[in-house]
Amino acid sequence: MSITRRSMTVGAVVAPFAAAQHQSGSGAVLTEAALPQLVEAARNFLSSLTPAEREQTVFPFDGDERYFWHYVPSDDIPAQYGRPRRGLALKAMSPQQRALATALLAAGLSRQGLIKVCTIMSLEEVLRVVENDTRGRRDPEKYHFSVFGEPSLTGVWGYRVEGHHVSLHYTVVRGKVTGNPTFLGANPAEVRSGPHKGLRVLRAEEDRARALLESLSEAQRQTAVVSSRAPSDILTERSRKAALKDQPSGLSAGRLNAAARHRLDGRVLPRQWPLGLPGGAAGRPRRAARERGQPRGLAERSLPREAAAVEGIGRRAARR
């Protein structure tokens, strides 16, 4: 069975929703040295808001809003969930506020991560042209910023940056910062025409995932690829439980051969990915997992979600 790049969208999901505690290996962790700049960026952004804007942006840490996340366009949220995507959108910000919001985004990402996220946002303009969108559904300024609780070095708080194919969540507890859940997607996976022809934002992730599948034996691939047809969406969608209930569970990392394990060890989602956060934190969960004798990197899970990303999450492209 050959693996072909037939989808319009590539997506990658990392980590289920984090409880309000630090869990080594459950997601990327910033070093303590990175926390002051995160707090400063959040405070600077909040200080630029009017009382009305702050009301749109700040929510209680222990409220239900923190548990909401999705990767579909903001215009699609009301019809699906009977509520808008909350948080202050870039479109509603002044130039100064946008600069400070971008600084907050950058504070939680590596350099390569920031490049990927901003480039994904720019694809909305590509989609606007390709789809001849005149309603404003495709808009690189429809990305929303939310803060939960009050930013501090020692308290409990978090923030979210979210819009089409970008969903970043950070939680701070006792001086530790985790970044999950995290979703990045690229639609189109490859720009086929226009001034950005050839652009593949998640090229490395897609190519590495395909290489991983190609390294499997035929028997292993039969288990890892849970469907011969691309699913209409990510198999686990936006569920807070990253589990495939009543579905094939995929191929356990423990059954991989040495070559496949080598590819899985941080190479499906490269080390420079957005969760390669400042301070070299990307490798820390991997090292902790190895010290506990657990499989490395994404090997803590079975493969179906990663395989789904390769095989064509993006059949949904026509509607998203």
> What proportion of the residues is helical, as a percent range?
25-40%
Helix count equals 10
Any low-confidence stretches, pLDDT <50, length ≥5?
1-8, 14-27, 275-319
Question: Kindly state the mean pLDDT as a whole number?
Answer: 78
Shape: globular
Number of strands: 8
Distance between the termini: 29 Å
Structural class: alpha+beta
Radius of gyration: 19 Å
Strand content: 5-15%
Largest β-sheet summary:
8 strands, mixed
The H-and-E topology, N to C, reads as EEHHEHEHHEEEEHHHHH
Topology:
Layout: E1 10-14, E2 28-30, H1 35-47, H2 51-57, E3 58-59, H3 77-81, E4 88-89, H4 95-107, H5 111-130, E5 144-148, E6 157-163, E7 166-173, E8 176-186, H6 203-214, H7 218-224, H8 258-267, H9 283-291, H10 304-312
Parallel strand pairs: 3-5
Antiparallel strand pairs: 1-8, 2-8, 4-5, 5-6, 6-7, 7-8
Helix pairs in contact: 1-4, 6-8, 6-10
Question: Could you provide a short overview of the structure?
Answer:
This protein has 320 residues and is an alpha+beta fold. Helix content is 33%, strand content 13%.
Describe what this molecule looks like in 3D.
Helix 1 (35-47) runs antiparallel to helix 4, helix 6 runs antiparallel to helix 8 and helix 6 packs across helix 10. Helix content is 33%, strand content 13%. 43% of the residues are buried. It has ten helices and eight strands. Mean pLDDT is 78; it is low at 1-8, 14-27 and 275-319.
Features:
disordered C terminus, disordered N terminus, 8 strands, 320 residues
